[in-house]
Amino acid sequence: RLNADNARFLLLAVLIVLYMLCGAAVFSAIELPTEREAKERWEERLENFTRRHNLSRSELRRFLREYEEASVAGIRVDDIRPRWDFTGAFYFVGTVVSTIGFGMTTPATVGGKIFLIFYGLIGCAGTILFFNLFLERLITVIAYVMKSCHERQLRRKGVLPHNGRRGSGTSEVDSLAGWKPSVYYVMLILCVASLIISCCASAMYTPIEGWSYFDSLYFCFVAFSTIGFGDLVSSQNIRYESQGLYRFGNFVFILMGVCCIYSLFNVISIVIKQSINWILKKLACKCCHRCQRRLFRSRRNVVMPGNVRSRRNISIETDGVNESDTDGRRLSGEMISMKDFLASNKVSLAIMQKQLSETANGYPRQMSSNSKQNGFSGGVGALAIMNNRLAETSVDR
Q1: Are residues 379 and 387 in contact, defined by beta-carbon separation less than 8 angstroms?
Q2: Do residues 307 and 299 make contact, with C-beta atoms less than 8 angstroms apart?
Q3: If DSSP codes are grouped into helix, strand and coil, which group holds residue 80?
Q4: Residues whose CB falls within 8 Å of the CB of residue 186, separated by 6 or more in sequence, listed in order
Q5: Alpha carbons 266 and 80: distance in angstroms, whole number
Q6: Whole-Å CA distances, 25 to 11, 20, 224, 297
Q7: What are phi and psi of 162, to 5 degrees?
Q8: What does the pLDDT average to over 94-101?
Q9: Does residue 312 come out as left (phi exceeding 0), alpha (psi in the -120 to 50 range) or beta?
Q10: pTM for this structure?
Q11: Residues 158, 160, 161, CA angle at the centre, nearest 5°?
Q12: What DSSP element (H or E) covers 184?
């Protein structure tokens, strides 16, 4: 039987595949008609150009392929700044270690490609560690702020003295030593912070880069989430107004945005994991109840533990143990403790003694007048000794 980790992994894989299939269907329905229209317009322009200048289609296509190769090397029709000057190279390594990878600048030499492999291996690992440490510090700051606000409320209520000393009635404040914010609260704060940073960065990109505000927001998400399509890239023109200030602001916005979005992804992954655990618990609970009902129907006349069980509510915060730890042992035939046996069995010891006695003697025993009055009957072995002792005690009374 699959354990919880394997079941969680398989369920997450299935959900991701379904999510990708749905996304592919939506994007195909939205973008495919536009792509077909653009291709038809391009074929028409290409045909008109070859007819007007008396060129063959093969020669023109060969020339366009050569331009594509030049474009990969960084050559453009419009004048732009050099790709591999120091500032351009610094912008490139920033996109590498942050795992953004816009693609507008790529190494063309063999030495550059080999160096990029080792450089990116160390740089990406160090940057991911920095992002994780940033999230830990952010959670610590949020926890400190929430704890301070909670203590301030307690001081207003008079539970905590204003000098900071805790009296005997401050047990509630003592529990703040392990104070940690809720994952949903952290997710809300990160969402608000990411939105504020994206809006402020878009307000800077719109007039300087000449993009629309929506395109600027789109660029912010693609860059901050380290997707990095490369269709829109900032700081690529040869000259800007207040160029030094703009490049510094661009660097700060990208750094802050990537930190917030990366931390937000980590928090959302925790919420997704909790949701998957909740789904698995629900599925396991239903399967367990079905198996127990089948077992109870097939062996309802047999005295055995675990036929009737009390149900417990399962929440997201629980560890996901199905009913109890003894369910698997009972169904597999493994030995259980007497404590678990008595806690789970609804059959009284008196009825069990009667069944054992009838099984040993081969017929139902006739109960004496004393045993009928005190409710006890003869037994077998050590249980019979206990049964007789209980009967004597009942008669003495």
Answers
A1: yes
A2: yes
A3: strand
A4: 138, 139, 142, 267
A5: 37
A6: 21, 9, 25, 47
A7: -70, -20
A8: 91
A9: beta
A10: 0.64
A11: 85
A12: helix 183-209
Residues 275-299 pLDDT 10s: 998 888 888 877 776 766 665 565 5
Crossing angle of helices 86-97 and 110-157, rounded to 10°: 60
- The token pair at 55 is 């060129």
What phi, psi does 92 have (nearest 5°)? -65, -50
Residue-range domain boundaries for the chain: 1-76
d(CA 379, CA 382): 8
The structure tokens listed for 295 are 């077992």
pLDDT 10s digits, 10-51 = 888 888 889 889 989 999 999 999 999 999 998 898 888 888
| Lookup result for tokens 């402020």 | 200
Calpha distance 276→171 (Å, rounded)? 35
Map residue 335 onto helix, strand or coil.
coil
Kindly state the tokens that stand for 345. 């069995």
Whose tokens are 């006695």? That residue is: 357
Residues, the chain, total? 397
Strands (E), the chain: none
Q: What CA–CA distance (Å, rounded) separates 192 from 169?
A: 37
In three-state secondary structure terms, 237 is: strand
DSSP class of residue 77 equals S
